[in-house]
Specification:
alpha+beta, 62% helix, disordered N terminus
Length: 521
Amino acid sequence: MRELTSTPSNTRPFGLRILGSPDEPARTTRIRVQVLLTGLLLGSNLVGVVSAAAFARFVLPGPTPPDVPRVIVLNVILGVVFTAAFVIAALTWGARVVTRHAQWLRSGRPPTEAEQRVVLQIPLILTGVQAALWLTAAGLFAGFNALIGDHLTVQIALANMLGGLLTCANSYVLGELLARPLAARALASGPPSRLQVPGVRARAILAWLLSSAAPVVGLMAVAAAALTRTGISTTRLAITVLVLGGIVLTFGLRITALAARANADPIKGLRKAVQQLESGDLDVSVPIYDGTEIGLLQAGFNRMAEGLRERERIREVFERHVGEDVARSALEGDGHLGGEVYDVGVLFVDIIGSTAMAGRLQPSEVVHLLNRFFAVVVEVVSEHGGSVNKFEGDGALAVFGAPISIDDPAGSALAAGRALTRRLAAHADQFEAGIGISAGPVVAGNIGSPARYEYTVIGDPVNEAARLTDLAKGVRGRVLASWAAVEQASPEEAEGWQRGKEVSLRGRPGRTRIATPVRSG
């Protein structure tokens, strides 16, 4: 699994983009998340306290106590004391949660599944603790007001519950976004085997409950209070309905938008990463920071991209072993044993005096020299549309016209032979080689067993080229071709060769007329 450093900067989602570089030190990530979650706790609870006070004083209908100043002062004193204790407890507890469950960051080790789940559950834990504290506040204020006169008991309790709902909704949605860098590091090695947080559907339902359903329930409670109580003016009731309705519309939209963004950001990152894959850039992955089904999708994408990279590496190695054309033919076919008849040009090249060279040089020096020699051979053969079928010690067999047919296989082999003569002449102080060229029908295909086979060519032109190579080592120019190959070539290439004498080649019946180049390639 790739680390966060592999994420392209233009695909970094909201929760990561606002929190610094994804490759920052682990300690910096922990401190950054802790500070931001602390700020979230302060800000969301401040909004909740102010909202609860405004609801109780100006919005929610209820009887007006005879000693309003005294009741307000007592509630304010209790509110200040409780809020201070509440904030201190929440901040202390929140800091401990992040610090205690991020010990794996300090030690530099991957987290366990249990530690991963705790990181993913931080928004839920924060929301649950704050919900408990706000319910406690609602009960405390209701009981306090019941003791001092029972004028504002229901009004204060309902105000606290509405303020708590605002706080919890903000805490959950924003906490999930702000904790993403920590979640991304926790999930860098892969998500846990079991989801332990609400899924995408549950996330949407939770956002609806906190942002819309709960305020509507509050609105219904106000309506019920208006039906059962006397002394509530129409104006006060209208203000209450308008304010609560406005909260449903504006605050509900905000929470729904944030919840939608929590789902949309990772999907946008995946879409951009898929576009990179489509453009041929396989070195791409996405950070895993979501504990829902989207996180599993992020992990699945990374596994798929890694599989594509591995497949590409295998294909590249395969092409280097057997040649690009043979590799493509093998990948597109069914890998069956057997072959087909092709009209091909065959070029065989072999170093002169390789045995003496091996005795004179160190093995590493021999390998280095052979690699330089074969580099020239492969380059020239490729330039003329052929492929090196196999390396045989200090020699190489090149084929033109199989497995991909070409227009002039004999001419291509002859042109490659002339070019190779010129190119090898530049290395005459290091090595010389004999070159033999032939052309004609061969059988080309997979030879071996179903468990292990190779692509090869079999036929008289291969044998003839090998024998001509041995003969070419003792002639000027170091290259010979069969006259039959010249006759099969295009007129333009045939003009570059002259007819020679007939010779007997070892292992072949009859005599072979040879040809030598008039000019080099």
